[in-house]
């Protein structure tokens, strides 16, 4: 009598593996919803057409990146995709879904860190002056838009952080905001008198006009009484900058960059700007705020005894 055949062991389907990986990022690593969505978007293309996870090898990873390059993807995007693939294959190998870790041998192009154009201090002042004039009649949407611009430029917060603020996150007495950033890291940022005035007017006359029964405790509200959508906030910034002749067409990221750059030009300490922006690494702040070699040379010559 012949023995029954050995059962065939197959790797779990790629869709199930991807779902498990994303749950790992969210629940065990504490990654934000935005980060998890970015991983899903990148890895879905990698795993499309793959029958099981054992098919994910170095050749597949290289073909995937090459196809992206042929499609015209930038170096930064390809580098991000390669990093996502390496994180996934390391996890898949560690959890027994891959016999090896092909991502460990995957090279990726170094992104060119092009610094975006940002408005000058004079252009930023003109944008805020125009927004203030538009809010002179206390229209609730105009008051909200003024506050969006003032807080983005005053604090350098990300637009998602701004739209995620609740009323309890505002300390008007100290002119400070409690912000939850990437990786659920909490920090405190401060703002000046103009932003404080815009906040006071919004809370007194703008927000009550837009609030509805059942509105959330969000600081910023949309016209229907819900939490302000980040897409609406981006539109506010683009529209405000387009009204100033010569100002670059940038979104909230540009105002964040401008806030940090202008502070450094005014003599702010680099580590303070790092804390303001919520960067985990000082090198990120140095790149983000366009600290040029020439500027570092000037500081070195002024401070070092043997410069």
From TrEMBL:
GO BP terms: cell division; chromosome segregation; DNA transposition
Intracellular or extracellular location(s): Cytoplasm
Protein name, entry field: Tyrosine recombinase XerC
GO function term, MF aspect, one: DNA binding
Active-site annotation: 158, 182, 253, 256, 279, 288 (o-(3'-phospho-dna)-tyrosine intermediate)
Job description of the protein: Site-specific tyrosine recombinase, which acts by catalyzing the cutting and rejoining of the recombining DNA molecules. The XerC-XerD complex is essential to convert dimers of the bacterial chromosome into monomers to permit their segregation at cell division. It also contributes to the segregational stability of plasmids.
PANTHER family in UniProt: PHAGE INTEGRASE-RELATED (PTHR30349), TYROSINE RECOMBINASE XERC (PTHR30349:SF77)
Top-rank taxon, per record: Bacteria
Keywords: Cell cycle, Cell division, Chromosome partition, Cytoplasm, DNA integration, DNA recombination, DNA-binding
Gene3D superfamilies, sorted: 1.10.150.130, Intergrase catalytic core
A cellular component term, taken from the record's GO annotations: cytoplasm
Pfam families registered for this protein in UniProt: Phage_int_SAM_1, Phage_integrase
Main location: cytoplasm
Key word Cell division present: yes
Domain Tyr recombinase: 114-301
Domain Core-binding (CB) as annotated: residue spans: 12-93
Subunit structure: Forms a cyclic heterotetrameric complex composed of two molecules of XerC and two molecules of XerD.
Organism: Pseudonocardia kunmingensis
